[in-house]
Design a protein that fits this description.
Strand order of the largest sheet: 3-2-1-4-8
Number of strands: 17
Low-confidence stretches: 332-337
Mean pLDDT: 85
Structural class: alpha+beta
Helix content: 25-40%
Strand content: 25-35%
Largest sheet: 5 strands, mixed
Radius of gyration: 51 Å
CATH topology of the largest domain: Nucleotidyltransferase, domain 5
Length: 422
């Protein structure tokens, strides 16, 4: 997103809340302000729309720890780390939430970097944001958003507290009134060890006291360098590394929520997909039904063909047409199959009426458009009756010689349509 809304929550609901809208591309402040308490967060609801929201929380509520944990896997390290810190924490491990940083290791050999916060406090911060309908997915301890450079600390005053960042994974939140004592301790530690001067880049005027006079502050062991004063949240917005730590992880991770309009479109899309699947299913079922009917018809054709030509051993539906053509060619047909079939259709009623006549051979002369029929019957009268039936069908009939063969009489017919030359 082009803009980010930063909100710095307090430890308690009545604490002051700071907010700032930051233009990411231009690196400048768009708007900023404060709220009297958490109940006024609703004033930021509209400002949070269409913007990324990042919450800073008081570093005094978060214990920042690093340690070396035996283990070959990240899962094993994270399971063991809370119990290794048990003696250093004021509360029971079960009442605390452990958020883990993306840091892999440091110069001291530590391999586990943890931010520890009370579950109740984390739930409280989330409840304030939820009540104001502010969608916040990232929550960072404020002290870890301070600028950091090699061998240099940074400090700024925010709400009567001094935020002091000492390294990438080390920081303190100190009450303004106790700052001189802490600074004095830092000075004494450096003096005793004769280390190089520790520089603190101060982005606001730090308090002084009799315990730490100007001479001490400017000693070779502790050097406080005044930087251009910054609005605290502007300083945090410019230097926060959102990949370093996010307290909202694990059970506190904020789930992605879709807008009502998008949900409506998803419903419409879901219904459309269901309708499409149903349509495809119906089409598929209809296609399966047609395939079954086609298979049934093909089986009937093959069965009828085998019944007509019982000597045929192998019949394939893809070649049955060519096989029929060969059979028709075998009975004397040429290319005019339509004439032959038409004449057979005319002759068929005569066969039905004179069932005593049995056809022996049927040949078709395509050039003369003539069927030559060789048949046999039990008497001559049957031949006459068959001829009479053919003439009734408007067919021209020429009867050939009839021969007596035992108890059967054989004879022939030349049959053509009226008007055709025989």
């Amino acid at each position: 997103m082009l803009e980010t809304l930063y909100i710095r929550l307090g430890s308690h609901s009545q604490d002051t809340i700071h907010w700032l809208i930051w233009a990411n591309a231009q690196q400048e402040i768009i708007a900023s302000g404060t709220l009297n308490s958490a109940s006024h967060l609703v004033e930021l609801t509209e400002k949070s729309q269409q913007r990324q929201v990042v919450s800073f929380v008081p570093g005094c509520e978060v214990a920042i720890k690093s340690l070396k944990v035996p283990g070959n896997s990240a899962k094993a390290v994270r399971l063991a780390a809370p119990y290794m810190l048990e003696d250093d924490l004021a509360q029971d491990v079960e009442s605390l939430f452990f958020a883990y940083s993306a840091i892999k290791s440091n110069e001291q050999g530590d391999n586990c970097f943890i931010a520890v916060v009370a579950r109740q406090q984390l739930q409280l911060w989330q409840s304030w944001l939820h009540a104001a309908d502010i969608k916040c997915k990232i929550m960072v301890p404020d002290v870890l958003a301070m600028p950091i450079t090699d061998n240099q600390c940074s400090a700024i005053i925010l709400d009567e507290q001094v935020l002091l960042r000492q390294s990438q994974w080390q920081g303190l939140v100190i009450d303004v009134n106790t700052w001189p004592l802490v600074a004095s301790k830092l000075f004494q530690a450096n003096e005793d060890t004769e280390q190089e001067a520790q520089q603190i880049n101060s982005y606001s005027s730090l308090p002084n006291s009799a315990q730490l006079d100007s001479a001490q502050l400017n000693s070779t062991y502790l050097n406080i360098k005044a930087m251009p004063e910054e609005l605290p949240l502007a300083l945090l917005a410019q230097h926060v590394d959102l990949s370093l730590i996010n307290l909202l992880q694990g059970e506190f991770q904020v789930k992605e929520q879709h807008s009502p309009a998008l949900l409506n479109w998803l419903w419409v899309a879901g219904i459309a997909v269901c309708a499409l699947l149903m349509n495809v299913g119906l089409k598929g079922a209809h296609l399966m039904q047609l395939n079954a009917q086609q298979q049934q018809i093909e089986e009937q054709i093959i069965s009828l063909y085998k019944k007509t030509f019982p000597k045929t051993k192998r019949v394939r539906i893809a070649t049955i047409k060519s096989q029929l053509t060969q059979k028709m060619s075998g009975i004397g047909t040429t290319g005019d199959n339509s004439g032959f079939l038409s004449m057979l259709n005319q002759i068929q009623p005569a066969f039905s009426t004179v069932s005593q006549l049995q056809a022996e051979t049927i040949k078709y002369d395509g050039k003369r458009h003539e069927i030559r029929l060789q048949a046999f019957a039990s008497d001559y009268q049957t031949f006459d009756n068959f001829r009479s039936q053919l003439e009734k069908a408007n067919l021209k009939v020429s009867q050939g010689a009839q021969n007596n063969q035992g108890d059967k009489i054989s004879g022939s017919f030349s049959i053509s349509a009226q008007g055709k030359k025989s």
